[in-house]
UniProtKB/TrEMBL annotation, chains A, B:
<feature type="domain" description="NrtR DNA-binding winged helix">
    <location>
        <begin position="166"/>
        <end position="226"/>
    </location>
</feature>
<dbReference type="InterPro" id="IPR054105">
    <property type="entry name" value="WHD_NrtR"/>
</dbReference>
<dbReference type="Pfam" id="PF00293">
    <property type="entry name" value="NUDIX"/>
</dbReference>
<dbReference type="InterPro" id="IPR000086">
    <property type="entry name" value="NUDIX_hydrolase_dom"/>
</dbReference>
<dbReference type="InterPro" id="IPR015797">
    <property type="entry name" value="NUDIX_hydrolase-like_dom_sf"/>
</dbReference>
<protein>
    <submittedName>
        <fullName>NUDIX hydrolase</fullName>
    </submittedName>
</protein>
<keyword id="KW-0378">Hydrolase</keyword>
<feature type="domain" description="Nudix hydrolase">
    <location>
        <begin position="10"/>
        <end position="147"/>
    </location>
</feature>
<dbReference type="InterPro" id="IPR036390">
    <property type="entry name" value="WH_DNA-bd_sf"/>
</dbReference>
<dbReference type="Pfam" id="PF21906">
    <property type="entry name" value="WHD_NrtR"/>
</dbReference>
<dbReference type="GO" id="GO:0016787">
    <property type="term" value="F:hydrolase activity"/>
</dbReference>
<dbReference type="InterPro" id="IPR036388">
    <property type="entry name" value="WH-like_DNA-bd_sf"/>
</dbReference>
DNA sequence: TCAAAAGTGTTACTTGTACACCCATGT
DNA sequence: ACATGGGTGTACAAGTAACACTTTTGA
């Protein structure tokens, strides 16, 4: 080993976003087990050490598949977290048990991913996987809370640079109000909903469906869908 | 060691941009020495393994200071490169010599930085440090050529999200044409220079100086400077 | 009939784009 | 005189923002 230089394991951690019926962004968290404290409910971001013949993108895709059962999920690397103090004593102890090996510093590469919240989660690795609204996320190990904070800034940038990834978070059929609520939840800048409506419905890749809402105590809204093929043909930039 | 998981060193590599008098983006490259082949001229991106008590940002800042002698340089992490095949056989051999230790896979975190090209480079670590125009960069070890390719996309995004970092690349006094040429070199989208002129001079943090060009065979252009304080007071978003 | 949200239309304002025109300087 | 780029002005197009008005539905 070369003195003074770190020689360690590298992991990936994934922040998976969903959008719930109450217009809140949610994040998928898994359970961290302490064998000696079985009742303590500890949550963490899904993640994994990187394997020998694996790149970071591969590792993140593997984590996502093990997490949800979905083969191909959109993902985006956004930052490497490597603060020397990011693993607390408790985290180090947990790694001792989890990996049966002593690791005192670990570097992680953080990924963003998006998932329709009504998709069934079928994890092959984790017993417990749950959605948490971003403002209800508990205290997490390592710097996972900080990773989530920064992921919020990142998802905003992502949507600004490619508006259409927003449709990864919506059901196939959606109303313009849903799209508006989601956009507002992410971008945090105010847009007049009527102008938003006009703008969105002017895009030719937003397909107007025949179906409308039912059982609402006001005029029923029309459902729309997103047509990726038409979008790709004339990929005009959208909401700047 | 835990089987199947990588257990390795992590490095940072820095892509430092400069803007030359011929309106080209340049990159700083250092010399890689082969003790057994002293005459071979090998270039690489400046970089370093990460030390024990150092975060990645710290490591990048250290590399930059060792490279240029400048204490604080702007920097931006942009991507972790971890492809299992990124170190060729030759690269592995070089690391054997350089670190006197066998490393067969290495993960790197890539950083962008910006430097006024007329600043004196005073490296405490490298004997040879030179500017290379981006289209004259030779074949480099590891995936350094790919890192540079991706850094070009990244610098474009950076300037779109914060226009004022462009002034890190210009001399303190600059003409609007210089700014225009630089902006064009980075953004690659055409803007009418007259409209650009009008727009730029309308910003109150672009200070019109009394000095003008000399020895030019046309009407002399005025010099301007960038006032960060005024900018920070009313940080309006600029060229979107 | 009323409240709530859908959906359309109108107008004013702001910004971007294209380009004409005059100015200054060295050859 | 003329080529080259500096710098200003103008006119039109396009996009954005504010908001009035009509429609539909359940309670």
């Amino acid at each position: 080993m070369i003195p003074n230089f770190i020689h360690t394991y590298v992991s990936v951690d994934c922040v998976v976003f969903g959008f719930d019926n109450e217009n809140r962004l949610n994040i998928l968290l898994v359970q961290r087990h302490f064998e000696d404290i079985p009742n303590e409910q500890h949550r963490k971001l899904p993640g994994s050490l990187i394997m020998n013949n694996e790149g970071v993108d591969d590792a993140a895709q593997r984590v996502l598949t093990e997490l949800t059962g979905i083969k191909k999920m959109v993902l985006k690397q956004f930052k490497c977290f490597a603060d020397p103090g990011r693993a607390s004593e408790k985290d180090v102890k947990w790694m001792d048990k989890e990996y049966n090996h002593h690791i005192d510093r670990i570097i992680t590469v953080a990924y963003l991913s998006l998932c329709k919240i009504d998709r069934k989660i079928n994890s092959s690795k984790y017993e417990t996987v749950d959605w948490f609204p971003v403002d209800k996320v508990p205290d997490l190990p390592f710097d996972h809370n900080q990773i989530i904070q920064e992921s919020l800034i990142e998802i905003r940038k992502w949507i600004e640079s490619d508006f259409t990834i927003i449709f990864e978070l919506l059901p196939k059929k959606f109303t313009i109000r849903q799209l508006y609520q989601l956009y507002s939840a992410i971008s945090e800048k105010y847009i007049d909903i009527k102008n938003f409506h006009k703008k969105i419905s002017s895009f030719n890749y937003i397909i107007q469906l025949d179906e409308i809402e039912t059982n609402v105590s006001h005029r029923a809204a029309r459902y729309y869908s997103f047509d990726q093929k038409i979008y790709k043909k004339n990929n005009t930039k959208l909401i700047k």
